[in-house]
Amino acid sequence: MITLTRPQRFIDDEGKRLDGRKPDEARPIKMQVGVLSNADGSALVEYGLTRVLAAVYGPKESQKSMLLPDRATLRVRYHMAPFSTEERKNPAPTRREVELSKVLRESLEPVVMTEYFPRTSIDVFIEVLQSDGGTRTVGATAASLALADAGIPMRALVAGVAIGKVDNVLIVDLNEVEDMYGDADMPVVAAPDIGQITLYQLNGVLSKEEFRNAIDMALKVITKIVDMEKETLRNSYVEVSEE
Amino acid sequence: MSSTRKILVPGEKIEGAISASDYYIYDYKNEKRVAIIGVVDFKQEGVSYSPLNGVYVPKEGDIVIGLVSSHGVANWFVDINSPYQAILSVQDFFGTRQNSQLPEDPFKYLQVGEYIKAKIAAFDRIRNPLLTVQDKGLGKIVEGVVVSVHPTRVPRIIGKKGSMIEMLKNETGCEFFVAVNGMINIKCQNEQLENIASNAIKIIETQAHIPGLTERVKKFIEEERKVRGV
Fold it and tell me: What average pLDDT does the structure give for chain B?
């Protein structure tokens, strides 16, 4: 088994991080929509080595027990595949996954126009295929793309990114090592088009000023990622027309 | 052409004044924004928006084709390609006022797996769509095949001023009924033609955005007819 150890320094003399990125540089991002044919909508998103697949079903008739009379029920399941981690992960949902499912649902609820389809349910499945830190933020990005691909009305697209602190420097889009041994981890999911932050968590300590800078950094990167999402969605239709 | 087309994705604003308010356009701080990916056409007459994705939402008065999926005590449940399951009552199907006039086993006359053409009699946010077949031309579909396409492809299958559907009719000699929910009833002289017609519909569905579609589908039908000798 490979064990991660705490590195001596996170940032070298040239100001580069362990994987050669600058502090405000996100990992290379790849996006694809419509990757699954059986789901109504799907997306595969990669931030570096973190790879997440999202699938959306619905809106469809809701089960009586969870039916809402005035809007659609949004169900989100965040799950890590057994092969997504260094050591096999038990596929049974853990406490962490149940909680992340809930916070991710809440990060999507403000943008999904559930009031269009009362008494129905929309299912979102977020499956982590490979984990290298920041799976919840990649999951939010993938879910947003998959929802748009499924043709579910949305006020705006959301995207996520994590901001962290290592060696007293704020860094964007943490990987596994930076997440584990860094001083702070702050995942943010936001919808820049409507100016809303839909998920915000903070693990660690940031000063007031650091916090303000961190939010600015996060929103800047998220705006870029949302622009990529838009391009991906547009291209999914252009490609069809060029076949 | 004086029109420009642009694909907008959720959250993007429509520039210029849009006359018609579509179901999938919402207001945000005095701006019109789209909620579903769609094409916005900027023409001299005004701006129009047509969604490229989405589901069929029933509307009162729509003529739909549905697949009977199950039945209850005095009604059938019909899948109409929508998030909501439609209901057709036994009384409505037989057009009777009193229960005593109903046949002994009403579900023998319309079985699970059969298709019906029906009108949406009532639908709102609190109840599922109620169907009626008590109108001209409605009822069980006994002839031809039914193919299902994505509801947003319906305008493409009909074409501008009905150009596509006219071409399909002329080329195959079949009868087409395109329901708003994306179910299409095709009646032809033989199975071969039915097969060609449904394949042509599938081509339209998958290549809806490519220019010159009508010509391509026309060529496809001509070639298929030659190959199959019909």
Answer: 88
- Residues in A touching B12 (Cβ below 8 Å): 193, 230
CA distances from residue A76 to A27, A50, B115 in whole angstroms, order as listed? 26, 19, 34
Given a cut of 50, whether residue B32 has pLDDT beyond it is yes
CB contact under 8 A, B53 and A150: yes
For testing contact with chain A, the best of B7, B9, B82 (most A CBs within 10 A): B9
- In whole angstroms, give the CA distance from residue A56 to residue A62: 15
Could you write out the three-class secondary structure of B139-168? Answer: EECCCCEEEECCHHHHHHHHCHHHHHHHHH
Q: Is the pLDDT of residue B84 over 80?
A: yes
The token pair at A4 is 């991660």
pLDDT digits (tens, 9 = 90+) for B9-30: 999 988 876 655 577 888 888 8
Contact across the interface for A157 and B9, Cβ inside 8 Å:
yes
CA distance from start to end of chain A? 46
Sheet containing strand A41-47, edge to edge, reads A29-33, A41-47, A50-61, A120-130, A73-80
ipTM of the complex: 0.84
Q: Does pLDDT of A240 surpass 70? A: no
Q: Which of B34-43, B161-170, B206-215 has the lowest mean pLDDT?
A: B206-215
Identity of the residue in A151, A157, A229 whose CB atom sits nearest the CB atom of B55: A151
Which A residues 14-73 touch B at CB under 8 Å? 58-61, 69-70
- What pLDDT does residue B214 have? 86
Token pair recorded at residue B111: 């079985």
Rounded to the nearest 5 degrees, what angle is found at the Cα of A37, between the Cα atoms of A117 and B116?
Answer: 55
> What does chain B come to in residues?
230
E strands along A7-150, which residues? 29-33, 41-47, 50-61, 73-80, 120-130
Q: pTM score, two decimals?
A: 0.90
Q: Is a pLDDT exceeding 60 seen at residue B110?
A: yes
To the nearest whole Å, the CA of A11 is away from the closest chain B CA by: 38
